[in-house]
Model the fold of this input.
Amino acid sequence: MAGSSVSVDYADAMITTPIAAGDWLIVAPSLITMLGGALCLMLRKHTDLQPKLGITLLGVLVLASFALLVRVLDHGVITMVMGNWLPPFGIAVTADTLGATLTFIGSVVAFCAGVFGMKTVSNSGRRYGFYPFLLLLMTGVCGSFLTADIFNLYVWFEVLLISSYGLLILGNDRIQLDGAVKYGVLNLVGTNLFLIATGLLYGIFGTLNMADIAIKVAELENPASGTLATVAALYFLAFAMKAAAFPVNFWLPASYHTPNIVVSAVFAGLLTKVGVYALIRIFVLILPASLGYMADIFGLVAIVTLMTGALGALAQTEIRRLLGYLVIAGIGSMLAGVAVASNSEVATLAISGAIFYAVHSIIVMTALYMSAGIMNMMGGSYNLRKLGGLYQKSIAFAGVFLILAFAVSGLPPFSGFWPKIMLVDAAFKDDRFWLGAAILVSGFLTTLAMGRIWIFAFWRGGPEGTPDGKSVEVSGSSQSDLASGAIWLPLGILTALVVYFGIQPEWMIELSTQGASSVVDPLGYIRSVFGEQG
Amino acid sequence: METGVTVLISLFFMVAVYLMLSKQLVRILLGIAILGNAVNMLIFTNGRLTREIPPLIPAHLYTPETATANPLPQALVLTAIVISFSFFAFLLVLAFRAYQELGTDEVNKMRVAEPENDQTPPQGY
Done:
């Protein structure tokens, strides 16, 4: 610069071309939620203002992430490097179809939860920061989906985790403290494992940029070598813990039924899927060779997770705990997709099945937890033995529940059907018949578990002991809330999405296929990070 | 030099895992604190240890003259220290509150969320 005797060509170190205005959208999801969360935190004593502000910000988030998705579909993968340093030195934020799709669906779910929380979160819950925590949770979720730097991914995981702690203990009940201890300790150990693996990976390659690591791994002579195998095993354990795969799933059923129902709904929708997303990103994009020799372990874990989830769900009396196990069963299906992705011929099909399943699971699990909340409002309990006669109370709600029950079991014509077809198809093409069979059997057992809720909570006349043919009026826990649109609107939006993705799956299949090919064939991703010469 | 530190790190990991396998919540938390330190040292060592050559660039140059100590792991460790410290503080308070409410710090006896002898679901349809 002026006064300097050495002339420097900044183009060697920095990106000098101006950033296209539309590319700024890529930082919008994190920025909106982070600044919005800070604003909400400052205004946390204004309990009337909290829902308005929080829901508005979440609405803006939905719009921004939709605009980002449209931009990615129009322009391909987009990258922004922080400080304009040339990658791999600057921290890159990259949106491909996979990240943008999950960001969009996650934002929709968070918006619905924000609206639902208007009724279920009390004034003291608002004062203790429900909306700031929800917004900051979304900062972590969106950041994880969009970052292209592996240490940055760790930081977003921690942002997500600390906000989830805040949400989990909102209310400070005995049962919540018990659940939070297990959730807190095990998740912290999981992120520490992630950090160990990242440290080792940095030691091997000297870089943290995912695209850069992918290039360097591809250049290795022996990508299945010992050190890299350690890293791969640690990543698998860490993300399996985050995703609640067997045998590191125990924190989920211990904690997901303890917080406020809307918090459970958000957790069930988003948190475990971030773990699955990280598994896909790390193993398919960065360590495909490791996935090759670990595929059987992935497949085995997937089968056992599917069975644990489905059988665990059958053994529960408490609806929320039953749904917690169904979250685990869904994780098994997605893991099955990752396992099959080791075969490069069916990798795109398998990963697109896993992505579609993740989208389906985000929507349907949130909606199911919300309906569990409504069942409690109508029937006064979460216990299958004490519920009954809800069909008489609201036929429309019974219909919505039946749609969700079909969807989560993978029955047509709802959103769970298509990803299951893709996953089973991919598993059979890869000659992994056991894996395909496990997905189908788990779907069947899920149907039984959901059918049980339908029969006991909706179909029979009243709680346990009511004679056949008689009907008993059950009293709900908060009947007055049931008249509010804030309860029905979010459930309606999510159910509409379930039906839409079931009847018109082309759009989502297209999105997930594009998302899958951006990780299976990472050239576009790498080019976007490094510029065209990469 | 890395070898010596590696032995130390593995000792840290051993202690951390041993403590985390305990039934007492306080010991588990101490294990987590030590685990955090072990991870930090691991990242630090993975950046290769170079002594007494600070990453400073002389005023008339734009790049350092010789290989210097790697500053990046220090930045990473700093981030990780802040995060693990805040998490540890949170978990300590959480454990104390749990001890107040549940009257025990033994994890096997913390069965409020998942009671023993839980009701089975209704049999038959």
User: Anything to note?
Assistant: Chain B has one domain: 2-52+68-109.
